[in-house]
Amino acid sequence: CTIPAVGLPTFEIGDDEMEIGMGIHGERGIKREKLKSADEIASFMTERVIDDLPFESGDEVAVLINGLGATAPQELYVTFRKVKEILDLKKINIYKSFVGEYATSMEMKGLSITLFKLDREFKELLDMPVHSPMLLQQF
Fold first, then answer.
1. Measuring CA to CA, which residue among 91, 42, 34 is closest to residue 65?
2. Per the omega criterion (within 30 degrees of 0), is the bond before 73 cis?
3. Cβ distance 117 to 61 under 8 Å?
4. Do residues 33 and 21 lie in contact, with contact meaning Cβ atoms separated by under 8 Å?
5. Fewer Cβ atoms within 10 Å of its own Cβ: the N or the C terminal residue of the chain?
6. Distance CA 120, CA 134 (A)
7. Going from the N-terminus, what domains does the chain have, and what CATH number goes with each?
C-alpha cells in the first residue's frame, strides 16, 4: 500500500512471497514465506481460525472472505470453495456467506477469512434488513 501523503510503500515484499496474518495497514504478520496455492493458503488460515475459538461440529457460522483491494473476485471464490470444503468435513454449517471487498487497503493484494460463530440472537441480527455501501443488497 502506498499512502498518497507519504508517496512510498508501507512495506516491501517479494513477488514470490506472502505474509500470513498481516494487518490491513501492513502490520507485520505471523510469518512470511514463499507463495503457495490458494488451497494451501485457505487450509492453513481456516484451520488456524477454527482452532482458535475453537469451533465444534454442529456450530453455525457466517463466513466472510474479504479481498484487500487488488485480489480478483475469482480468487476470493476459489478461497471460499476451500473454506466451505473444510467446514463441511468438520460438520460446521454455513448459515450465510459474504465474499467480496468489505474492508480494503489501497493497492493491497490478499484476503482475510473470518468465521463468525452464530447463535439464535446473532442469526436474527444478521438477517435484519440493511442498506450500506459495503452491503449493496438487502437481506
1. 42
2. no
3. yes
4. no
5. C
6. 24
7. 19-126 (3.30.1180.20)
Q: What is the spatial distance between Cα 94 and Cα 64, in angstroms, rounded to a whole number?
A: 11
Which residue among the candidates 9, 17, 25, 47 is catalytic per the annotation? 25
The model's pLDDT over 9-68, given as tens digits with 9 standing for 90+, comes to 888 889 999 999 988 777 889 999 999 999 999 999 999 999 999 999 999 999 999 999
**Catalytic residue status for 131:** no
**Which residue's entry shows cell 488456524?**
48
How many residues comprise the chain?
139
Q: Would you state the cell numbers that stand for residue 32, as one nine-digit string?
A: 512470511
Q: Which stretch of DSSP H or E encloses residue 116?
A: strand 111-118
pLDDT for position 136: 60
Amino acid letter, residue 67? G
